[in-house]
Specification:
Catalyzes the transfer of a formyl group from 10-formyltetrahydrofolate to 5-phospho-ribosyl-glycinamide (GAR), producing 5-phospho-ribosyl-N-formylglycinamide (FGAR) and tetrahydrofolate. It catalyses: N(1)-(5-phospho-beta-D-ribosyl)glycinamide + (6R)-10-formyltetrahydrofolate = N(2)-formyl-N(1)-(5-phospho-beta-D-ribosyl)glycinamide + (6S)-5,6,7,8-tetrahydrofolate + H(+). This is Phosphoribosylglycinamide formyltransferase. Keywords: Purine biosynthesis, Transferase. 33% of the residues lie in helices and 24% in strands. The chain is built from 6 helices and 11 strands. It folds into 2 domains: 104 residues, Rossmann fold (3-Layer(aba) Sandwich); 96 residues, Rossmann fold, CATH 3.40.50.170. With 222 residues, it is an alpha/beta fold. Helix 4 links the parallel strand 4 and strand 5. The strands form 2 sheets. It has an 8-stranded mixed sheet, with helices on both faces. The structure holds the ligand Nc1nc2c(c(=O)[nH]1)N[C@@H](CN(C=O)c1ccc(C(=O)N[C@@H](CCC(=O)O)C(=O)O)cc1)CN2 and glycinamide ribonucleotide. Glycinamide ribonucleotide binds next to helix 1, strand 5 and helix 6.
Length: 222
C-alpha cells in the first residue's frame, strides 16, 4: 500500500491556513499525513493549533542563527529528518535562501495575499486599496528563489468594495485563502499537480494561467 504523502507546514503566526488544511483533512478531503509544523516564532498560535491536532511541532528561531544560510540549513535538516513530500508555507515570514528553495523546489508551496504578479512583498491589502483596484485576492504558487515570483497555481478573487478598510479586505481575501490552499494541496498530494520545465501542470496539462476561483466556485468539485 502506497504510504500517505507527508506534509510539513511552516508558519510564523495565527495558522488559520493551517487550520483550513486540518479541517479538510478531518473531513476526509485531504489524503495526506501532517508530518510536522515548524515555526520561527515560539509564540505562533499556529503551533497551538497543530498541538491540538496531535501534530509534532518544532521551533527553529531565526534569531539563534548567524545568518540566513545557517537558519535555512537547520530548517532543511529538520524536514529531511522527518521526511516530507510537500512543504507548505502558510504565513511563514522569512525569505528562504536559494539553496533551501532548490532543495525543495517543486514540492514547496506558498500562499500570497494578492493576485500575483501584482503586489509582491508585504502590506498587500493597503497597497491594493491605494492603487484603487476593483478586484484583489490571493495566489498559491510554487516557491522559487525570487520572492513571490514563483509559478502561480490557483488564485482566489474577491471584489474590492468602496470604503473597504485593509482589515475588511484582508478578511474577505482570507475566506478565499482557506478555500484555494486546501484545493492546491489536495491537487498536489493526489498527484494531479506538478511543477515541470514547461510550468505548472494540472492533470498533465500545462496551465496558461493560474486557475481562478471566486466565492461562487464549487472548489470541492475541481
Ligand atoms: N525565496 C523565497 N522565500 C519566500 C517566498 C518566496 O516566494 N521565495 N515567499 C515568502 C512568503 N512571503 C510572502 O508571501 C514573504 C515572507 C516574508 C517577507 C519578508 O520581507 N520577510 C523579512 C522578515 C519579516 C518579518 O520577520 O516580519 C525577512 O525575511 O527579512 C516577504 C514575503 C516566504 N519566503
Ligand atoms: N507574504 C506572506 C504573507 O503575507 N502571507 C499571508 O500571511 C497570512 C497568514 O495567515 P495565517 O497565519 O492565519 O494562515 C495569510 O493571509 C497569508 O496570505
Amino acid at each position: 500500500m502506497t504510504p500517505s504523502p507527508r506534509i510539513a507546514v511552516l508558519l510564523s503566526g495565527s495558522g488559520s491556513n493551517l487550520q483550513a488544511l486540518l479541517d479538510q483533512h478531518a473531513a476526509g478531503a485531504l489524503p495526506a499525513t501532517f508530518a510536522c509544523v515548524l515555526s520561527n516564532r515560539a509564540d505562533a498560535y499556529g503551533l497551538q493549533r497543530a498541538e491540538a491536532a496531535g501534530i509534532p511541532t518544532a521551533v527553529v528561531d531565526h534569531r539563534q542563527y548567524p545568518d540566513r544560510e545557517a537558519f535555512d540549513r537547520a530548517l532543511a535538516e529538520h524536514l529531511e529528518a522527518v521526511g516530507v513530500d510537500l512543504v507548505v508555507l502558510a504565513g511563514f515570514m522569512r525569505i528562504l535562501t536559494p539553496v533551501f528553495v532548490e532543495r525543495f523546489q517543486g514540492r514547496l508551496l506558498n500562499i500570497h495575499p494578492s493576485l500575483l504578479p501584482d503586489f509582491r512583498g508585504l502590506h498587500t491589502h493597503e497597497r491594493a486599496l491605494e492603487a484603487g483596484v476593483e478586484e484583489h485576492g490571493c495566489t498559491v504558487h510554487f516557491v522559487t528563489p525570487e520572492l513571490d515570483a514563483g509559478p502561480a497555481i490557483v488564485q482566489g478573487v474577491v471584489p474590492v468594495h468602496p470604503g473597504d478598510s485593509p482589515e475588511a479586505l484582508a478578511q474577505r481575501v482570507q475566506v478565499q485563502e482557506h478555500r484555494v490552499y486546501p484545493l492546491a494541496v489536495r491537487w498536489f498530494v493526489s498527484g494531479r499537480l506538478a511543477l515541470t520545465e514547461s510550468g505548472v501542470a494540472l492533470d498533465g496539462q500545462v496551465l496558461e494561467a493560474p486557475v481562478r476561483v471566486d466565492a461562487e466556485t464549487a472548489v470541492d468539485r475541481l
